[in-house]
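User: Here's a protein and a ligand (heme C). What would the complex look like?
Assistant: Let me lay out the input and then the predicted complex.
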Amino acid sequence: MKKFIASVMFALSASVMVSGAALANEGGVHLESANINIHDQASLQVGAKYFANYCMGCHSLNFSRYNRVAADLGLTEEQVTKNLIFTRTDGEPTKAGELMKNGMSPKQSAEWFGAPPPDLSLVGRSRGSDWIYSYLKAFYVDKSRPMGVNNTVFENAGMPHVLWELQGLQAKECTKEGEGEHAVEHCEMKTVKAGTMSPAEYDKVARDITNFLTYVGEPAALHRKTYGVFVLLFLGLFAVLAYFLKKEYWKDVH
Ligand code: HEC
């Protein structure tokens, strides 16, 4: 029986590892480390601001409410109403207690972009932060695509490069080394039009948006990890107590 349980546990953990690796390695592209910190409130606030301004026109966050985000990011409801809410519900400005939806119809947007912009509530978990960060940096000019851009991380994505004014435009230049089967292709990104931000500034914006989307994917993580430290401390102390208790109980037996 023990053997059976052990082999089931092994099979389960192996399959989890394989599926994780398969997702992370999708398409075989190299992902840059996002290097985010969900406890960095300033970064989350900047990320939320950029998300509301540049992304929410197309993407909703159907599982988040504005006031929950406000509380977690250290913002007042007034700040949120003024700076993050641009939508209306039934003709009235959307209230802070409402879900972060937008008015885009999936059917129409599927016609415009070839695919409807998905809800991004859980993208931090489905794609992972490194993927989102790399994706936001990987748009390049490709005249054959309807939006004029393609993406090395998400090939043929229907999304336009909405942050192009900040990042500028880049082109993908590839050179082949070697012959026939053994040829290796090296590709590099070259800036063809500078943006309003320096590459370091743009990286920070991409990182802050990624941080925000990662937080949104699991808001409870903000508190869960703090509780975890206390739980471990308690278990450590309890182990010491249990050890002395055991010694006391068994002292006449041994
Ligand atoms: C003009 C509409 C539009 C805007 C604005 C926009 N997106 Fe998108 N986005 C799309 C569409 C359409 C897709 C689906 C692409 C596809 O499946 O081909 C998409 C896909 C994505 C995905 C991949 C989701 C997945 O798991 O497949 C991410 C992540 C994403 N967008 C992030 C952002 C962020 C961050 C911003 C703001 C900086 C943003 N988008 C702004 C239209 C938009």
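Summary: Residues 221-250 form the longest helix (30 residues).
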